[in-house]
Specification:
Strand content: 5-15%
Distance between the termini: 51 Å
Helix content: 25-40%
CATH class of the largest domain: Alpha Beta
Oligomer: single chain
CATH architecture of the largest domain: 3-Layer(aba) Sandwich
Number of domains: 3
CATH topology of the largest domain: Rossmann fold
Number of helices: 20
Largest sheet: 5 strands, mixed
Strand order of the largest sheet: 1-16-17-18-13
Radius of gyration: 25 Å
Length: about 600
């Protein structure tokens, strides 16, 4: 069914001594990584493992990760030093401990001591690192800053006074996401985090992905908080509140309550949402099944009748769509016009469900629980997001915000019984479940595209596509569909997306055919399961992998694993939508895109 070529890469190693023990470690990796591989964790605030794995360094700004070179007697920052043959270092010498302690005390002296009222309380790397280091006093004058907050974005907020100037968010935005919407500005004590060139956040090239918030060790940058408005709605009897939740939420929400990443808490989540007061619970996984009906049909149509229009690129990720409109607008014609799953479900709630339940759509509030901060922007990105005369979706909260609401309501999440989702638009297929993982949209799409192209269902023993799975940065493969070759590519993280699109662009510039027919793109690392609104993690690689496994376990246990086999989907198309891509389905479920100007300076803004 599918073929791929895997090349084993030989890793060059070096021999060095760490804390008196000789060991073999990969050559050229950050020393801090090599030390951790040997079982010792060095304190750090500016370093993040995503940096070196994507070919960049940390800022080396916090000064906590110092180690001693036993050959020269000097201490240096281990995040900036690469492993080399014959190195001999100690991580916990008295001079290292003293330097770390001083660095931490200076950071704390410039940080507002508002831990009890901070949204990162009990989940703050500064707080936990200071505790691990045994910091019990701050011998320096406390001089926190009083810069104004930045609230100009629908997705992202900045508290420059809690920022510790570690540089993680700036590196993440500029290098990993290829955007550059943030900067550390100023001199001396008046150094602070701000949007690029002092613009409002909404004016910058920001794509709303929230990877800056996911990589921030403190509460210097965070998602726009919408839970208070939601609580007001829940207490307003005039509203009929419908809630939906993305695939990736159910494998991460448990982390907010001490469970391991990847544990499926779907049934408990439904119960908690009922206790919070929602009137109806549907599931974005059902919306994912709708998306596949439209997107797979769109691909099949192009593949069979319009091959010159290929590749088709998935459009479920609003940050990727935003990035495309701003930085690679030549690819707009290749974007699927299908709305994202939660927007599709939202518009069906305001139309199909409203008619069935005989409820005025103006009294319905649709709330989406998303792993993504960009979804807060998406619901207002285009006039056709209220094509039914009311917004498709009224409010978005993140997985983190839902965890806070459950705790605030005094709900003992782990003790909850599991309940079922409401019907009409709650039942979902295994294909809908895997949307939250990188490669999941591709695999779900291929399961239905095979049916559209051949008129037959994939055999059960061939329904899984290992070539689309895993956390490799870019995955490519050739899929054989009864003699028809479908060339696919999957990329996550915008630095990797750019590499993939540059390959496609290079072929086009040479007058050659695109090397790929079907491309899946996700802005966040790991896909939605690594979204900017997911619970914070100090072990991102392991956390993403466990969440990924949880989503595929959800698919595996499903009795229906193809979107077009979902009986509720079949019923909705038969009774209400008609055929995919046509009539009412096209009117309600599709959108459009347009190039956007990129603003990097206030002068650019004046010239718009």
């Amino acid at each position: 069914m599918s073929t791929t070529i895997q090349t084993k890469v030989e890793v060059e190693t070096v021999t060095m001594t760490i804390n008196g023990k000789k060991c073999s470690v990969p050559k050229g990796i950050p020393l801090i990584e090599a030390v951790e591989q040997q079982g010792t964790r060095i304190p750090r605030l500016c370093y993040h493992p995503d940096f070196y794995k994507n070919g960049t360094n940390g800022a080396g700004s916090c000064g906590l990760c110092v180690v001693k070179n036993n050959i020269t007697g000097k201490i240096f920052r281990s995040c900036l030093m690469k492993t080399n043959e014959g190195m001999d270092i100690t991580t916990n010498s008295p001079d290292c401990e003293s330097a770390r302690k001083t660095a931490m005390q200076l950071i704390l002296a410039n940080h507002p001591l508002e831990c009890l009222s901070c949204l990162r309380n009990n989940n703050c790397e500064l707080q936990s690192t200071a505790a691990d280091m045994g910091i019990r006093e701050i011998p320096y004058a406390l001089t926190p800053t009083t810069f104004p907050h930045e609230n100009g974005s629908l997705s992202i907020k900045i508290d420059p006074n809690k920022c510790i100037k570690c540089g993680r968010c700036v590196i993440t935005c500029r290098v990993l996401q290829q955007v550059e919407a943030l900067e550390i500005h100023g001199e001396g004590h008046d150094v602070y985090l701000r949007p690029l060139d002092g613009l409002a956040m909404s004016e910058t090239p920001c794509i709303g992905c929230g990877q800056c918030t996911a990589h921030c060790p403190v509460a210097g940058i965070y998602e726009k908080q919408d839970s208070e408005e939601l609580i007001e709605w829940l207490n307003n009897p005039e509203y009929h509140l419908v809630v939906q939740m993305a695939p990736a939420v159910r494998v991460a929400l448990g982390e907010e309550f001490g469970l391991k990443p990847g544990v499926l808490v779907t049934g408990k989540m439904y119960t908690a949402l009922r206790l919070l007061g929602f009137d109806k619970i549907f599931d974005t996984n059902f919306g994912a099944d709708i998306t596949i009906m439209e997107e797979a049909s769109e691909f099949s149509k192009r593949f069979i009748n319009e091959p010159e229009s290929l590749p088709i690129i998935t459009s479920c990720c609003p940050s990727w769509v935003n990035w495309c409109e701003k930085f690679y607008p030549d690819f707009i014609p290749h974007l699927s016009s299908a709305k994202s799953p939660h927007q599709m479900l939202g518009v069906m709630v305001k139309t199909y469900y409203a008619e069935v339940a005989k409820i005025d759509p103006k009294k319905i509030k649709v709330v989406s629980i998303m792993p993504c901060t960009s979804k807060k922007y998406e619901i207002k990105r285009h006039p056709d997001m209220d094509v039914a005369g009311v917004p498709d979706v009224d409010l978005v909260i993140t997985t983190r915000e839902l965890g806070h609401m459950i705790r605030q309501a005094g709900i003992d999440f782990n003790a909850l019984e599991e309940t079922e989702v409401d019907q009409l638009m709650g039942e979902y297929s295994g294909a809908g479940a895997i949307f939250g993982a990188t490669g999941g949209v591709m695999e779900a799409g291929l399961r239905t595209a095979y049916y559209n192209i051949t008129g037959e269902d994939l055999p059960d023993d061939a329904i899984e596509f290992p070539v689309a799975r895993g956390l490799d940065k870019i995955k490519t493969a050739s899929i054989d569909i009864k003699g028809a070759e479908v060339r696919i590519a999957v990329a996550h993280g915008m630095i990797n997306v750019k590499k993939l699109l540059d390959e496609v662009k290079a072929a086009k510039d040479k007058g050659e055919k695109s090397p790929y027919d079907f491309i899946e793109i996700m802005a966040c690392y790991g896909g939605c399961l690594g979204g900017g609104g997911q619970p914070y993690s100090k072990t991102p690689d392991l956390t993403r992998e466990l969440r990924r496994q949880g989503l595929y376990a959800d698919d595996k246990k499903s009795t229906k694993r193809r979107s077009h086999q979902n009986p509720m989907i079949q019923k909705m198309y038969t009774e209400y939508l008609g055929k995919p891509l046509e009539g009412k389905a096209h009117h309600l479920l599709h959108t459009s895109y347009a190039p956007k100007k990129v603003v990097r300076t206030k002068e650019d803004l004046k010239n718009l």
